[in-house]
């Protein structure tokens, strides 16, 4: 061309910002998995979780903690980016996990908002709870008197004490 003479040697100074392969999948790093895990999330579950979203260099681009509100979504239904949809499968209530998402499973070459194009995304998540809308009610009997001849029935007036909590044990209410 006009600016570079023929047979010239060129020198480029390059700062590698991130690296990915379009064949890469997500990477999951378990940070804290509860000892007791009754059930792992699966496609169709409604999951409530907190997250911090950063770029590979640690730059924060979004956080549910800053809104003081969990992010709630159905898993495996395409309501979130493909990498997060996959990363939320198989979690336990109370689990903390890091999900590293390559660009083609995130916001691609275009990016979005504070996220530049071709960015690798890092999400540190904390699963608050999840359920499947088709789940039935689960009842656990902790105590039943040995002499239990009178049973309640529909229409009876009951007086009782209770503790209401989330699946992770967070107390919501108590009489």
TrEMBL record:
Catalytic activity: [protein]-peptidylproline (omega=180) = [protein]-peptidylproline (omega=0)
Principal place of residence: endoplasmic reticulum
Cross-referenced PANTHER family: PEPTIDYL-PROLYL CIS-TRANS ISOMERASE FKBP9 (PTHR46046:SF2), PEPTIDYLPROLYL ISOMERASE (PTHR46046)
Keyword Endoplasmic reticulum found: yes
GO CC, alphabetical: endoplasmic reticulum
Biological function: PPIases accelerate the folding of proteins during protein synthesis.
UniProt EC number: 5.2.1.8
Compartment(s) where it occurs, according to its Swiss-Prot or TrEMBL record: Endoplasmic reticulum
Top-level taxon of the source organism: Eukaryota
GO molecular function per UniProt: metal ion binding; peptidyl-prolyl cis-trans isomerase activity
A family per Pfam: FKBP_C
UniProt name for this protein: peptidylprolyl isomerase
Keyword Calcium: yes
Residues covered by the PPIase FKBP-type domain: 44-131
SUPFAM superfamilies: FKBP-like
PROSITE patterns xrefs: FKBP_PPIASE (PS50059)
Keywords of the record: Calcium, Endoplasmic reticulum, Glycoprotein, Isomerase, Metal-binding, Repeat, Rotamase, Signal
